[in-house]
Structure formats: C-alpha cells, structure tokens
C-alpha cells in the first residue's frame, strides 16, 4: 500500500500524442457547455457571486425571478432574456475561442497533458468537498451529535449567517434596486479585495487555499483551478464569508435584489471571461470596448495581469499576482490601496512567479499545500517556527521547507514558489490617470 501511495504521489502524467487531440477537444467542449449552464445557478447571488441574504446556489431563484418579471413586466422580461442569452453565448464562444485559437496565438496547440493534469486536479479538489463533509459529519456523530450537521455544514452555516444578519443587521437605507446593487458592489468589494489579498500575503491561506488557482502556466477555463474548491478550506470560512456579504446586502436592502443582481451579473460577466484566457489577451487588450468594459467591471482582461508570472509587467517591485486584485467597479480598491496595474503590450506568461516547472501529477498538485505545511510543522522543532509557519506572511520560509508542487525543491532559506508578494512597493496610479488610461490605446504595441 505504501508503494502504491508513493507511486500515485510521485509519478507524472506523460506527454500525450496529438492523435488524442480530438478526445481532449471533446473534453474541453463538454466542460465549457456544462460550465456555462451550471453558472446560471449563481446569477441571482450577490454582485461578487457570493451570498446575498442567505440565498442558495440553485436554478430556482433565477427561474422565480424570471417568472415574476414575465408576469409583471413582459417587456423587461424580454430584454433580460436577451441580455442573459447574449451573456451565455458570448462567454461560451470566448471559452471555446480561448482553446481553439491557442495555437494561432502561441505557435502550438494547448498541451493535452496540461488539459488532463489540471482538469483532473480540479476534479480531485471538487471531490474533496463531499469527502471533507463526510469526515465532518463523522466527527459530529462520534461526538454524540447529529451526523447531518457536518454533512450539511455549508447549508447550516448559510442559514445561521442569514438568521444573524436578519436579526441584528439594520437596513440603513432601503435604496432603489439599481442604486442598492451599485452601493453593495462597492462596499462588499472592499471585503472581497482583502479576502483575496490575504490569500496572497498570508502564507497559510496562499499554500492551502489560493495557490492552486495560480498554478496553470497558460489559461483556458477548463484548466484554471477553481478558487472555491481548493483544499477545500472554504468550509471553515463559509460562516464569516456569508455573514460579511449578507450584512453588506442587508444594509442597503431589506429584501433580496434578484432581478437587479441578475442584470448586474450578466453585464460584468461579459468582460470577466477574458481574465482567464491566454489566447484572447492580445485581442481583448487591444479592443477599446472590451478594455473599457473590463475596467468598469473591475476585472475582465485586466484580471489577466493578476495571473502574470513576469514581474516586469507590473513595475520594478516584482509584485506579480498582487496587482488588479479586484473588488468593486472601476478597480476602486486597487487604486486606493496601490495595487492597480495597467495592461501589458504583450501577453504575459501566466502561472506562479517565474513560471517554475511543476510536478504534473494531479494528486500531488491537489495536496501540495497540505503536504508542505504538514511537512514544515513536523520538520521544524521550534514552536516559534511552527507558529510562524501558520501565521507568517507569504515571503517567510522556515529553516526546513519543501515545496511539493515545484520540481526544484528548496529545503532551506526561501520558499520554493513565493507568490511574489515579498515586495509591496507598488507603483500607485491616481484615479484620474487610471480612468483616462482605461479607454486609451494602452496596449497597441506588437506582441513579442
């Protein structure tokens, strides 16, 4: 058994012949269609696809909202259906284009090996969700409590957060729906920004939760690691996450804003798809309309700079991955906190800082953060070091450390794959400069 586990953890997916390209393409197409349909479950949720007022992830709120709108205002229903259809079809075309145009842009087709490795890593991370809920339910059962508390942990926490917010958070201003959504987007964006930023600057969160999202060397949707399934650590933060975002909603609306949020999400999700498409960066960054829509939404093609592995694109600080963090329209919080980065004239290489060579083993990549933290805790006898392993910033590395995701392992001194957050000397851009640059032709130089 030990040898079998070692083999599973240490072996790598070999190069896969182009003769299997049709199967890889079919996998990408099936994933893309399924992803586009599944995404509809999130359209009624808050401006950041997070919780609103304790709402569940399902199709029912979307269907209810559309049915109510059709009964009360058929003209508006028709307009919303047109917008919804355009958003879905546009995103579907962009996701397929990101894969099928990859060879034209990069000189070679998207490696089948990457499709297999990162698709399986995504699947393993997703499969870990019911496994952890099962384990949590078992712990409750062994403690003499109800197994269902652990198994339905996420739903249970959503209900608790909802009840706490409804009982204790006042509605300061019951603003009209469009204005309320905009205010909520800005206010909740502050928390979204800092949750995301901590995922980079706090080493425990980086290794255990957020680093997988930044591992892929070239981005298409089906190989970009989902943030919310990583580890999945999210089951431990689901309560505070729901509390914060539901509270932001309740402050400005006493009722869910389903229709207004669906419209808002449809609009921001159009440019959003360009944030994880390597092959579409050059086109999107040179298109004035896409560039402006991306800036207004606070993401889009600008988010691709967040996935850059090359320090030279974002200033001398080398602060790769800590730019264009997002959180609010017009990159308001990036501008305020100095992490805004304009578009590069050429397509940046994606991935971890310096794009190190990874162990192309789905199981290893899935468990790399857990393995590294556990290995560090066991290998460093000092309690002071153990404490720092859990609480220190991302630029810290204990005396003994092994990176299980990267082939070049370093057991002393610096961390093997720091998220380039060691230097925080960002180049600040003023709001006026940023807004002026958003619509300008800032990315028209030829790609090198």
What does this protein look like?
There is one protein chain. The chain is mainly α. The protein has one domain. The protein has 19 helices and no strands. It has helices at 2-10, 21-38, 60-72, 74-100, 102-106, 112-142, 147-151, 153-168, 177-201, 203-210, 234-252, 258-272, 281-286, 288-297, 301-306, 332-336, 362-379, 383-391, 431-438. α4 runs parallel beside α12 (258-272), α9 (177-201) packs across α10 and α10 packs antiparallel against α17 (362-379). The relative contact order is 0.13. It is found in: Membrane. Residues 182-339 form the Fatty acid hydroxylase domain. It comes from Zhongshania arctica. Keywords: Membrane, Oxidoreductase, Transmembrane, Transmembrane helix. This is Sterol desaturase family protein.
Write the topology of this structure.
Elements: H1 2-10, H2 21-38, H3 60-72, H4 74-100, H5 102-106, H6 112-142, H7 147-151, H8 153-168, H9 177-201, H10 203-210, H11 234-252, H12 258-272, H13 281-286, H14 288-297, H15 301-306, H16 332-336, H17 362-379, H18 383-391, H19 431-438
Short structural description:
By secondary structure, this protein is an all-alpha fold. It has 19 helices and no strands. The protein has one domain (41-355, 426-438).
